Amino acid sequence: MTPPQANLGYDMDMIASDHPLYINITTYDVADIAWTLPRALEALKEIHTALDERIVKTTGNERLPCYEPRDGCKTCSRCCHESVFLTPLEWLGVVAYMQEHFTAEQLTLAINQATGLYRSNKETIDAFLLPPKKGEKDHFYLAKDLHFTCPLLGPDGCTIYPAREILGRVFGQSFNPQGGIYGCELSGAHFGAREVTLVKAQAWAKLIEALPMTGYRQVYPWYFARTYNLALRDEQG
């Protein structure tokens, strides 16, 4: 199905609070009286900063197939053509980043691409929030067959790189729960059988899960469709 082509008349404007596509994230309920959304987003940034600093120490001298040299995925964006998952809190961090750094034209393009991907893969994407089918312990059977280019990947790399999700940060330079490399075959070939010191992907993911609004993960097209479909429909009449 062809995605809606938004023509909002604000193409060169930034996403100010009076813009039709502006999302007031302060209205989101974190469902935890111990947290406010600003504090949760600040805690998320603190984890991102600590992880980034740790990764520089562990792989800063490696000529990695990805993040070489921490270039916003311009060197290699293979994982950006797979199922990229993030939590609702991480998504709101991305929304805040887009509203500060995207023009309306850039945001509209991302929305059109993402909602088109969602419509094309709706059944599979929605199934991630359902129990795994009988005989499966998780949703890997869905993820392994879901391939699309992330709507936030631009010609010069990731367009939201500073706000990217935790799994994107550890991909290609961390250990998975089994002690292998959490990454693609390029990462495995790079490290080979060498003894290396890397962060543990699952441990850092669990730090995120201790924050509010992190009870599940979904792909970017799902979040775009839920967040912006109404705004697009209202603007287009």
Brief synopsis:
The chain has 237 residues and is mainly α.
Features:
mainly alpha; two-stranded antiparallel ribbon; globular; single chain; two-stranded antiparallel sheet; 237 residues; disordered N terminus
Please give a structural write-up.
This protein has one domain (48-236). It has nine helices and six strands, in the order αβααααββαβαβαβα. It has helices at 37-59, 88-101, 104-120, 122-127, 140-143, 166-170, 185-191, 201-209, 220-236; strands at residues 85-86, 153-154, 157-158, 174-175, 199-200, 218-219. The chain has a two-stranded antiparallel ribbon with strand order 1-6. Helix 1 packs across helix 2 (88-101) and helix 3 crosses helix 9. The longest helix is centred in the N-terminal third of the chain and has 23 residues, at 37-59. The two termini are 19 Å apart.
How many strand elements? 6
Strand arrangement in the largest pleated sheet: 1-6
Distance between the terminal alpha carbons, to the nearest Å?
Answer: 19 Å
**What Rg do the Cα atoms give?**
18 Å
Mind sketching the topology for me?
Layout: H1 37-59, E1 85-86, H2 88-101, H3 104-120, H4 122-127, H5 140-143, E2 153-154, E3 157-158, H6 166-170, E4 174-175, H7 185-191, E5 199-200, H8 201-209, E6 218-219, H9 220-236
Helix pairs in contact: 1-2, 3-9
